[in-house]
Amino acid sequence: MPTTSMLWLSMTARHKKTHLDGLNGGGGYKEITQIDLVRNVGHQRAICVALAYINANFANYDGVVVMDCDGEDDYRDVFRFIDDLSADEIIFAKRRKRSESLSFRVFYSFYKAVFKMLTGHVLQGGNFSLIPSAMLNKVVHLSEIWNHYHAGILKSRLKIKYLDCDRAQRYRGKSKMNFVSLVTHGLSSVSVFNDIVFVKLTLFAILFFIGSLGAIAFVLFKKFVLDMASPGWATTSIGILLILCTQFLFMVINFTFTTLGSRNMHTFMLEREYKNYIMQIKTN
Questions:
Q1: So where are the chain's domains?
Q2: From CA 214, how far away is CA 237, in angstroms rounded?
Q3: Sequence-distant (≥ 6) Cβ neighbours of residue 110 within 8 angstroms
Q4: Do 154 and 115 contact (CB within 8 A), yes or no?
Q5: pLDDT tens-digit profile of 116-164?
C-alpha cells in the first residue's frame, strides 16, 4: 500500500465531500469533511467550490483525487494515478469502455467531434482526475473551470497526462445525464474556448461570403451570358444567398460584441468567491 497522502473529492451534485485518506499502511480515513452548498450548482461548479476549499484549508498532502461517488469511477484506478503522480502534471482518466446506452455514446462521440472542430482540442477525459498539491493553487485560479472543469484545465495549457480507464458499474440508480444535460454540458465546454470559436466562426463566415459572391457571379453569368437560367431561378438563388450572408454577418457582429464585451466584465475569481456558495461544513 503506498504511503502517499491524498485528499479525496467525492462528487455529488448537491454537495461535495472532501476525504482525507491516510493511505499509509491502509490506515483508512483520518477524517471526513462534508461541504453542503446553498443550492444545487451542478457538478462542475460544485467541484470548483470544493477544490477552492481544499486549497484554502488543507496542507501537507501530495494530491487531490476528484471522482464520482456513484461507483462509475473505479477506486482501483486511484492507485494507478498515485503510482504515476508527479508534481507538475495533472492526471485524467481516459475512458476506454463506457456503460451508457448506445444512443448516449453516439451523441457523446458527435459532441467530441464538434468540440475538436470548434476548439482544435481533443476532449479525452472527464472529472475523474488527480491534481498534485503543487498545481492545485494554479487550478483554482482558472476562472474557466467554473463553466467546465476539464476544458478549463485543457485551455490553461497545464501539463496533462491521461491514463486509460474503464468506467465501472453504478452502485445503484441510473445516470441523470440525458440529451438536454449533454447538450448543456457540451455548450459549457465550448464556451471556455469562446475566443478560438469566435475566430473560427469569423473565418468561416468570410469564406462563406466569398463563396456566395462566386456563386452569385456564376448565376448572373449563366443567366445573362449563357442565357441558360429558367425564369425566376436566378432571382431565387441570389435572394437565398443574400439572406444567408446577412444572417452570418449579424451572427458575427453579435458574437464580436459579446466576446469583446465580456472582457470588460468582472472576472469570476474562484479562490475568493467560493465561500459564498457554502452553507455549512461538517467534519467527523
A1: 5-192+269-283, 195-262
A2: 12
A3: none
A4: no
A5: 888 888 888 888 999 999 999 999 999 889 989 999 999 998 999 999 9
Model pLDDT for residues 59-117, shown as the tens digit of each residue: 888 999 998 888 888 888 999 999 999 989 999 998 776 666 677 778 878 888 888 88
pLDDT tens digits, one per residue of 220-274: 888 887 877 677 778 888 888 888 888 888 887 887 777 766 666 667 788 888 9
Residue from 93, 70, 69 nearest 80 by CA? 93
Q: Quote the pTM value.
A: 0.78
From CA 58, how far away is CA 136, in angstroms rounded? 11
Which grid coordinates are listed for 203?
473565418
Question: What's the CA gap between 267 and 138, in Å, rounded?
Answer: 16
Which contacts of 180-188 are long-range, i.e. CB under 8 A and separated by 24 or more positions? 182/104, 182/107, 182/108, 182/111, 185/44, 185/148, 186/111, 186/114, 186/115, 188/44, 188/147, 188/148, 188/151
DSSP string, 132-152: EHHHHHHHTT-GGGGT-HHHH
Count of all residues that appear for the chain in the document = 284
DSSP β-bridge partners for residue 10: 17, 67
CA distance 179 to 184: 9
Angle, helices 194-220/179-191, rounded to nearest 10 degrees: 100
Going by their DSSP bridges, the two strands 125-132 and 28-37 should be labelled as unpaired
Task: Give, in order, the Cα–Cα distances in Å from 122 to each of 91, 111, 138, 154.
Answer: 15, 11, 22, 9
**15-22: strand order across its sheet:** 160-166, 90-97, 125-132, 63-68, 5-11, 15-22, 28-37, 278-283
Cell numbers for 136: 492545485
